[in-house]
Request: fold
Amino acid sequence: MPAQETDMNANREGQWDRGEGERRTAVVDGARVAYWQAGPPDAEPILLLHGYPANHRCWRHQIPPLARTHRVIAPDLLGWGASDHPFHLSFDYVTEVARVGRLLDALGIDSVNLFGHDYGGFLALGFTQAHPSRVRRLALLNSRAHSSFTTPWYTVFTLLTLAGRVPALRSVARHLPFAALHRLALTPLRRSGHLDDATLATYTDWMRTTEGRRRLLHFFADYRTATRPGLRRRLGEITCPTAIVWGREDTYLSPAIATELAARIPRADLTMLHGTGHWLLDERPGETTAALNRLLARETRETRETRETREN
Reply:
């Protein structure tokens, strides 16, 4: 089925509407992708890609200020949040990257400012390299990018991929308390007041059900934790203005990833937030938004051409 956009104004869910904008749905790969749109509809677009195990709510602090001047679109990636969870579709990296483009097609967007946190940054990097003309500016925030996780978490996620792929392990893993384990990992963020209970519930509580655990394992069956040498080799080919924004004390992802990205991408600026962990969108929302606004102020090919046309 071709990608298409569907207006869902009549079907908005109040419990999700907390300043993220208007809930809508696009159809991609025959499945419904829920997204939230805010800001002037004719303004320059920003696409916000969330990480794991979050959804569009991870951008809740950034959407309102960014929407003052831009059309901001924050989807729940296919398989997550309020989007469909199709078991017949693949979630391997190449397919997921291509799916970002099909989402843009559904939204009628040719090129976009692409911002990604965690898994969303992983996809954003691959999409920028595959389709450079479609990305005006790129922001990577605490993402594995071309690399991978610190040793303890590399082990955890590798075991999850095995549980998703090996039938004998999968049958056992379907009974594991994934919701409780993910809540435990996010407890410091909640106790510090940076993550409210309602948002935490949207990240984890779907894993309490048998279907939810099956969804999780279906995703990890296609996921791979190994580094991506191909992405690393092509970092120097990224020509758009780029921001690397990083919480220095991330226990999942080394800050060395950030410094390498900043060194290899020609037009990259690095913002390193000390005393901040993986969840910088929640822990340091003001500084994170400021870094994104600095990126948006940088000239792109499109803005330069517009300026030159006006001057002539």
User: Anything to note?
Assistant: The two ends are 44 Å apart (CA to CA). DSSP finds 13 helices and nine strands in the chain. The CA atoms of residues 273 and 287 lie 8 Å apart.
